[in-house]
Design brief:
It contains two helices and no strands. It is mainly α. The protein has helices at about 1-25, 30-40.
Amino acid sequence: MARIARWSLGAVLVLLALVVALMWLAESRWAQALFEGQISQCLNGREVEIAAHDIDWSWPLSF
């Protein structure tokens, strides 16, 4: 029984670490450049510059 509890706890901790890493990545400069590129493509190649992006992690999620 203890073995199952340890594996379950380990799995939950790994998932939690993955969520935190993805949240950090979404706030990064790399993601900002990715967003700018995607928006530029949607606007037929117009140059787009995002001065600052801030993700509000409350519900509903907003930028």
